[in-house]
Design a protein that fits this description.
The termini are far apart. The chain is globular and about 50 Å long. By secondary structure, it is of the alpha/beta class. Helix 3 packs antiparallel against helix 6. It is about 35% helix and about 20% strand. It contains seven helices and seven strands; from the N terminus they run H-E-E-E-E-H-E-H-H-H-H-H-E-E.
Length: about 240
């Protein structure tokens, strides 16, 4: 490939990115008018529990309870976050990031950094890859049979169940967001956050945080889902 063609490809990709950002402007403007000032954003929160003081961004989710309010922003996050820079004080993201592939995940975290104010905080929950590897190496069948940890995905043997739970998107005939596309532990997730400019990156525990808005974490979920948040979770907080 000659230099002229390479430069043309680079220029085209840059123009596509500019167009992509420009097409988000009407949505950013709309949500600025709708929400007013700073917001706390729960990304991938689903419509099941509406927590006071938070706005929910999700995409074609399932309504877990009759009469519950649906999410505030119905949006495919792969298009970027439809908010202006410095729009969020806090971002909460539970068991969503692992449903994006490597490239989508990087772009998503960069968008989170963009919309947070300086000093704003993000809290991320994902399945703990190290925990799953440990249980796999121990051949701990009871762990992989436990629906609270593996969401009823027992496939008859430990190896397939292990792979389904950490990389289920690649087991499916058609990839959907109900399957996992990435595997995270503290090392690779904290590395990504640091590279994007986040600081004060620290591991946390469920329902425990130095930030008051995160200390009543159970309110973000229907009661029937709270049992899922045990040893199989990795929880990280970071500051912009």
């Amino acid at each position: 490939m000659n230099i002229r063609l390479k430069n043309l490809i680079k220029k085209t990709l840059k123009n596509i990115e500019k167009i992509k950002r420009a097409t988000l402007f009407p949505y950013k403007f709309f949500y600025r008018i709708k929400f007013g000032g700073l917001i706390n954003l729960n990304i991938g929160g689903g419509p099941g529990v509406y927590t006071e003081g938070w706005k929910i961004l999700d995409y074609k989710g399932v309504n877990w309870g009759e009469g519950k309010k649906l999410y505030d922003i119905n949006w495919d996050i792969r298009r970027g976050i439809p908010l202006f820079d410095f729009s969020c004080k806090y971002i909460y993201c539970s068991h969503f990031l692992e449903h994006l592939n490597w490239y989508e995940g990087n772009e998503f975290l960069a968008e989170c950094y963009r919309v947070l104010i300086t000093g704003g905080k993000i809290r991320i929950l994902v399945p703990d890859g190290d925990c799953f590897i440990k249980k796999f190496m121990e051949k701990n069948e009871s762990f992989f049979r436990n629906p609270d940890y593996c969401f009823n995905h027992w496939l008859g043997n430990i190896t397939d169940t292990f792979l389904w739970n950490i990389l289920g998107a690649y087991y499916s005939r058609k990839r959907g967001f109900d399957r996992h596309a990435m595997f995270y532990n503290y090392e690779n997730l904290s590395y990504r956050l640091k590279n994007l400019g986040f600081k004060n990156i620290a591991q946390s525990e469920f329902n425990t945080s130095k930030e008051a808005v995160f200390t009543e974490e159970k309110k973000f979920f229907p009661k029937e889902l709270n049992r899922y948040f045990g040893e199989n979770n990795l929880i990280i907080e970071a500051e912009k």
